[in-house]
Amino acid sequence: MADEKYTANDIELLSELEGVRKRPGMYIGSTNLNGLHHLVWEIVDNAVDEAVNGFGKKITVTLMRDGSLTVEDEGRGVPVDIHKQSGIPAVQLIYTTLHSGGKFNSKNYKTSAGLHGVGATVTNALSEYLEVTVYREGKIHHIAFANGGHLTTPLEVLGPTTKHGTTVHFKPDPSIFPNTKFSYETISSRLEEKSYLLTGVHFVIKDQISGNTHDYYTEHGLREYVQTLTMDKTPMADIIDLNDTSNPIQVEIAMRWCVGDYGENIYSYANDVRTADGGTHETGFKGALTKIINDWATENELIKPNQSIDGSDIREGLTAVLSVKVPENKLEYEGQTKGKLGTPEATAVVSNALSNFMPYYLTENKDFAVALIKKCAQAKEAREAARKAREAARGTKKKVAEMIISDKLASAQSKDYKNNELFIVEGDSAGGSAKKGRDRSHQAILPLRGKPLNTHNVSNQEIIDNLEFSTLIQTIGAGFGDEFNPDASHYGKIIIMTDADTDGAHIQILLLTFFYNYMKPLIDRGMVYIAQPPLYRVFKKSDPKKRIYCWNDEELEKAKQKIGAGYGVNRYKGLGEMNEDELAMTTMNKESRVLCRVMIDDSLVTEKRIETLMGKDSAPRWNWIQENITFNEEDEFIKEVKN
Fold it and tell me: What residues contact residue 319 under an 8 Å CB cut-off, 6+ apart?
């Protein structure tokens, strides 16, 4: 039966800016720190588009004292004349209207990251205020907006100038973003990344609060990029690089294999935007590399024609950066956030570029080529051995595997895998409480015994041989490494539950390193969590049943006031201090618990951080700690040094 009360008056008509504010996630992915910094990337990408097309040699990002941010370039300056169709200045149109800009016409930009034309508008819509200063045609032009893009100062001329370019100054709206504090490190890393992709351009970052500043500048582009990415590794040979500009889609590649590195690190870009989810250009690169190595090995009788090497074995230990410049009329992304290139032609162009170069390189550097084929063959042997070990665990040694699991794992009874949860718990004591307090239908408990292995840069066989991780792999039931299939996971949530101390934090890091290196799709899909047990219990001494659990010091003070006189405080040092009822209610019950979802905001920062903190070389780790951590008298590190 139709609802007669539903009429045209119930239809809400929003302006474009109001639409962005209503659903910000549609345009910037989320309103967390990742989404906050997306506002910066949109403005920086506009400046980069000017520089990559030959206009300007310097881009400056300044973190201001009041929490706002400024991006300044030396480009042509945003047009300020009246737009004929709209009757308003072009600069006003660009910052208040979606899908407006000069990037839809190839005569203005040969290549561009900002195909969708929504960046500047979205940043304006989600800002407390935004002002644009344009240095163009000998004049300083200024326009300002506030409260989500509403015009507050119409376009005006402030005076004469000899400069050219655009300066955008904005402050994120705190009513949209829970946290509006920009990260110097995150922005600095992105500008460093841009400097490798755009040689000859200075990318400067300044922080007015800390006084930190840095000028990123490179002359050898991707070659320097790979040099930086592999600086803490042992290379097999020099960096291999090529630059093919023979097609409308330009291709640049730099790569290097390293010994003792069992991972695969491929960073791809389209028009200087990181394509974290890959795309057609990565497909062309991987396919061509596999064919080239196999053909060369066969022709030189290093392998038999029917014994081809798998692509994953070839890419083991490889660090590669792939960058394509795609003309505007051919540029296709999958999704507004530009995470995956969809341009079909890119596959063949990249494949041909590599195929025209790599065979000759291998022939000219035969010693390296032979060593590489040998390394690939060893990777294949290790992968086959690991596969046989897994098959043995499922087959003839199935009973042994079950004994290993049953000794530790309290399984979930339900076969509704998507709703099942696996708690990886620190210690047998906490594991025992968790087993008693869990929801047996959907929650499984896997206690850890001691600290897990650091799985950064270890072989698949070492993972198989490690009891803790072998058990974890079998428990999740979806394989690991290149064969990992998240759809086969027996659990929709993997929850790490450790004590709130340094040992607990260390265990979290070791487990996250494993998931990142061997089950990364779990993180990509948001299936990995960290449990948040309370730090305090405030109770009434005369009535202990009257209690409040607190997760931070602010909540603690409020709880003291609420309980009133005669209160007591328990500070939980470990999960084992809680009985099963308390642990279940505060940390495991779906209705009352607090979980922290593990996400990757910036894949490049994450990769570099893991290499620094978890790599074998202690010097970079020590330097990072000295530069980024401030210890005080309360820290255990200081106490240990004193004692």
Answer: 226, 229, 230, 233, 255, 256, 257, 258, 261, 265, 266
Residues 20 and 110 in one domain: yes
User: Starting from the edge strand earliest in sequence, which strands make up the sheet with 58-63, in order?
Assistant: 150-160, 139-146, 127-136, 165-172, 69-73, 58-63, 202-207, 213-216
Backbone φ and ψ for 498, nearest 5 degrees, come out as: -130, 170
Q: Which residues are catalytic?
A: 426, 499, 501, 503
Q: By C-alpha distance, which of 250, 354, 246 is closest to 292?
A: 354
How far is CA 415 from each of CA 409, 419, 584, rounded to the nearest angstrom?
Answer: 16, 9, 22
Residues 165 and 310 in one domain: no
- Across the chain, which has 643 residues, the per-10-residue mean pLDDT values are 46 61 82 90 92 92 97 94 87 82 50 55 94 96 94 95 96 94 91 93 95 94 92 90 94 94 87 88 96 95 88 93 91 74 95 96 95 90 72 49 58 91 88 89 89 84 85 90 87 92 88 91 92 91 89 91 90 84 90 88 75 77 72 43 32
SS3 readout for 217-228: CCCCHHHHHHHH
pLDDT at residue number 177: 93
Q: What is the 3-state secondary structure (H, E, C) of 478-513?
A: CCCHHHCCHHHCCCCEEEEECCCCHHHHHHHHHHHH
Is residue 142 within 8 A of residue 156, CB to CB? The reply is yes
Domain annotation covers residue 392:
no
Domain of residue 346: give its range: 221-383
Say how far apart CA 562 and CA 568 lie, in whole Å: 12
- In 3D, which of 552, 551, 425, 587 has the Cα closest to residue 498? 425
DSSP H or E run through 370: helix 366-394
Comparing CA positions, the residue from 426, 424, 435, 430 lying closest to residue 471 is 424
- pTM for this prediction: 0.75
Cβ count near 321 (within 10 Å): 25
Please give the Cα distance from 205 to 239 (Å, whole number): 29
Residue 526 and residue 622 in one domain = no
Quick one: which of 531, 532, 562, 565 has its CA closest to 547?
562
Q: Are residues 212 and 175 in the same domain?
A: yes
Q: Is 410 helix (H, G, I), strand (E, B) or coil?
A: strand
CA 12 → CA 7, 8, 22, 277, 591, distances in Å?
Answer: 11, 9, 12, 36, 34
Which residues sit opposite 153 in a β-bridge? Answer: 144
Looking at the structure, tell me whether residues 89 and 50 fall in a common domain: yes
Backbone dihedral angles phi then psi of residue 583, each to the nearest 5 degrees: -65, -40
3-state secondary structure 573-620: CCHHHCCHHHHHHHHHCCCCCCEEECCCCCHHHHHHHHHHHHCCCHHH
- Domain at 258, CATH number: 3.30.230.10
Supply the pLDDT for residue 562: 92
Domain count, the chain: 4
Altogether, the residues listed in the chain come to a count of 643
Provide the 8-state DSSP code for 74: -
Q: Can you tell me which residue has the tokens 């951080």?
A: 609
